[in-house]
Amino acid sequence: MIDLEKCGFATKQIHAGKHENAAGALTPPIYQTSTFEFASVEEGGRRFAGQEAGFIYSRLSNPTVNVAEEKVAALEGGEAALGTAAGMGAISAALWTSVVSGDEIVASDTLYGCTFSLMNHGMAKFGVKATFVDFADLDAVKAALTEKTKVVYLESPCNPTLKVVDIAAVAAIAHGYNPAIRVIVDNTFASPYLQQPLKLGADVVVHSATKYLNGHGDVIAGFVVGKADFIGEVRSFGLKDMTGAVLSPFDAFLIARGLKTLDIRMEKHCANAMKVAQFLHDHPAVDKVYYPGLEDFEGYEIAKKQMKKPGGMMSIELKADRDTAAAALNKLKLCTIAVSLGDAETLVEHPATMTHSTYTSEELKASGISEGLVRISIGLEDPEDIIADFEQAFAGLV
Ligand code: 3LM
Fold this sequence. Notes:
CATH architecture of the largest domain: 3-Layer(aba) Sandwich
Bound molecules: ligand 3LM
Order of helices and strands: HHHEHEHEHEHEEEHHHEHEHEEHEH
Structural class: alpha/beta
Helix content: 25-40%
Largest sheet: 7 strands, mixed
CATH class of the largest domain: Alpha Beta
Shape: globular
Distance between the termini: 61 Å
C-alpha cells in the first residue's frame, strides 16, 4: 500500500478511501443497505459497546459513505470526516455537538442564508446566542469574544458577497483568547483544492458537498472534517441523535466519483471565472464585480495569501434598476437562473430574493448584501460562450 499522506492532491482525490472488496472491483461498490448482520447476539453487543470494530447500521456508519469520508478527510488534511445528507446537516450536527444552552457563537455577518437562519432563529430558540460581526474587522472579532464563546464560525469567500476572511488571523485571535474555542470554517466556496482551513489554524471544516465536491449537480450532501475525537462525537451525537441527517450510500458513491476530478474541475472553474470577471469588470452596464481574483477587490491580497486560485464564484451589481436588471438576466440563454453552485453549468441567482431570503432587508443591508446583487457560479462551458451570453443579455442596458 502506498503512503497516501506523502502523495499529492490528485493522487489523494483518486486513491484515498479505497479498500479491498470481495470481488476486487476497481470502483468501491455501493453498499445500499440499512443494516448489517451480526454472527451472534454477543458480537452485536460488542459492536454496540465499541469493543469490536465492524458495521452496525447505516445511520452510524456505512462502507460506501466511508469511502467519500476518507477522501474528503485526506483532501482537507483532517484526521477524519463525516458525511451528512446536506450541507445544513453538516453545519447543524457540528454546531449542536459544540454548544449547550447559554453558550455563544461569534459568527461572520455574511453567511449562507440558512446557516444564518439556523443560528439567528433556530439555535436562539434553545438559548444559544449568536453575535454577527464583520470578520474583515479583526478588532471587532476580538471584541465580540466572551467567556461563553464556544464557536467562532465563518465562510471564506462568503456567500454571496465573496468577502474574504483572513482565516489564520481569526483562528489566532480566537485561540489566543481561549484555546478551547472551536473555529469552524465553511469551505464550500473554495473547496479543499483551493484552500485548506485546517492548515491555516481552523479546528473544523464544514462543506456543502452539493457544490464543488460532488460537482455535477445531482446530489445534496455535506461533510464535517476535523480531529478524530470531534468527528467521533459528531457521528455519535450530533448526527446520530440530534439531526439524523445521514448521507445515503448512493449519494456517497456519486461524491466519491465526482471527487476524482476535483482538481481539474476547479482549475477550469477558476480559469473561466477570471475571464468572465474581467469581461464583466470592463462592461459599461456593470457597476461592481465582486471576485477575489480582481486586483481592485477588497479581499484580493488575503485571497492571494490563503487560496491557491480565486475560485469560480462571483457577484455583480448592475447599473440598472431592479426590474431592468431582472429583465436583462431573463434574456440569458446558456447561463441558467438557479440557486446552488459548483456545477458544470453556469448558474445565476438573485440572493436577496433567493438564497438569502432568510435575511430581513435590514439584515441584508447590515451584511452588505445589496438588493441588486446578482451571484454567478461560473461553470465548465467554453468561456467565450459564457461571455457571449452575458454580452447579448446586457446589450440593451447600455
Ligand atoms: C446556494 N447554498 O445556492 P446544502 N454552506 C454554503 C452554502 O452555499 C450552502 C450550504 C452551506 C445554496 C443552496 S439555496 C436554497 C441553495 C456556503 C448552500 C447548505 O444543505 O447542501 O444545500 O448546503 O447558495
